[in-house]
Amino acid sequence: MTALCVSVREVVKHYCLGKVIIPALQGISLDVAEGECVALCGTSGSGKTTLLNIIGCIDQPTSGTVTVVGKPVLTFTDSQLAELRNRAIGFIFQTFNLIPVLTVYENVEYPLVILRLPKSERKARVDAMLAAVGLLAHQRHRPGELSGGQMQRVAIARALVTAPRLVLADEPTANLDSRTGLTILDLLKTMNRQHGTTCIFSTHDHQVLRYADTVYTYQRRVPGGGWRTTMMVQLAWRNVLRNRRRTGMTLLAIVSGMTGIIVFGGFIEFAFVGLRENRSFARSWGIFSSINRGIPSMVWLRHIPI
Ligand SMILES: Nc1ncnc2c1ncn2[C@@H]1O[C@H](COP(=O)(O)OP(=O)(O)OP(=O)(O)O)[C@@H](O)[C@H]1O
Ligand SMILES: [Mg+2]
């Protein structure tokens, strides 16, 4: 049996925006074997980027377990995660995340500098990768001087230059024309075949799907039923904990209001009894008996003949 490169179990991810909880992933499970090429499909907002960020150790789930290249990454420290990301994972971001002050060459070289490779080896690898994505002529340009598609190709070169075990690509062809897109996909597929690189990519593009061994399709779950009730209870409880002072004042106001109603009921009853019987004993005793009996005394008032 082939070893697993990625295992995701019952992963839930909620983002908190102020008092609003946004459920991005709700119990996702996924197994990706070493050397497998997997596509994540789904409507916008279904959580593809969120899932890739969690697998790429950039973000943590709210609950669930995640194993990446055989490591239980949720137990790792920040420095262990950084080491794993540098050595084993190449990430192609949907928004490129290039460093604006560095040239194309320096952006691609950067992960190799972190790995402390000698300069000559860095140059050989960067040149080969820039040639593969067709950007040798642009190596002195800065990201701000490139088109969206060119920036995408720099991001792809930077992700692949370390020859990682796992490549995560968030919509890798979204900004490319179809011919360049196919060249990039061929490059990914070649790495996948020749080096056994595991690839997970998200896409809306049907020609990308042909490159995948397995396709997972996700739907954004529409809030409703039990999920909605659970979320409402969670939201209410969070609000109670967050605004303790306000909650205390509200409780005090409710208790004061109830007490006021009971006392008022007592006075009304006292007035009626006093009017009817005109006895000082009833006048004074009526208040206390009404307070003791509380709200039911108000109900009873309705039966007093005026
Ligand atoms: N940092 C964040 N803070 C708050 N909510 C977020 C954050 N990132 C994502 N979300 C929300 O999580 C949900 C899933 O977002 P995600 O970006 O993972 O979707 P996606 O499938 O990648 O969408 P697309 O196809 O448009 O890229 C969305 O409702 C989004 O608004
Ligand atoms: Mg996305």
From TrEMBL:
<dbReference type="GO" id="GO:0016887">
    <property type="term" value="F:ATP hydrolysis activity"/>
</dbReference>
<keyword id="KW-0813">Transport</keyword>
<dbReference type="InterPro" id="IPR015854">
    <property type="entry name" value="ABC_transpr_LolD-like"/>
</dbReference>
<dbReference type="InterPro" id="IPR017871">
    <property type="entry name" value="ABC_transporter-like_CS"/>
</dbReference>
<feature type="domain" description="ABC transporter">
    <location>
        <begin position="6"/>
        <end position="245"/>
    </location>
</feature>
<keyword id="KW-0472">Membrane</keyword>
<keyword id="KW-1133">Transmembrane helix</keyword>
<comment type="similarity">
    <text>Belongs to the ABC transporter superfamily. Macrolide exporter (TC 3.A.1.122) family.</text>
</comment>
<dbReference type="Pfam" id="PF00005">
    <property type="entry name" value="ABC_tran"/>
</dbReference>
<dbReference type="InterPro" id="IPR017911">
    <property type="entry name" value="MacB-like_ATP-bd"/>
</dbReference>
<feature type="transmembrane region" description="Helical">
    <location>
        <begin position="251"/>
        <end position="275"/>
    </location>
</feature>
<protein>
    <submittedName>
        <fullName>ABC transporter ATP-binding protein</fullName>
    </submittedName>
</protein>
<dbReference type="GO" id="GO:0005886">
    <property type="term" value="C:plasma membrane"/>
</dbReference>
<dbReference type="GO" id="GO:0005524">
    <property type="term" value="F:ATP binding"/>
</dbReference>
<keyword id="KW-0067">ATP-binding</keyword>
<dbReference type="InterPro" id="IPR027417">
    <property type="entry name" value="P-loop_NTPase"/>
</dbReference>
<dbReference type="GO" id="GO:0098796">
    <property type="term" value="C:membrane protein complex"/>
</dbReference>
<dbReference type="GO" id="GO:0022857">
    <property type="term" value="F:transmembrane transporter activity"/>
</dbReference>
<dbReference type="InterPro" id="IPR003439">
    <property type="entry name" value="ABC_transporter-like_ATP-bd"/>
</dbReference>
<dbReference type="InterPro" id="IPR003593">
    <property type="entry name" value="AAA+_ATPase"/>
</dbReference>
<keyword id="KW-0547">Nucleotide-binding</keyword>
<keyword id="KW-0812">Transmembrane</keyword>
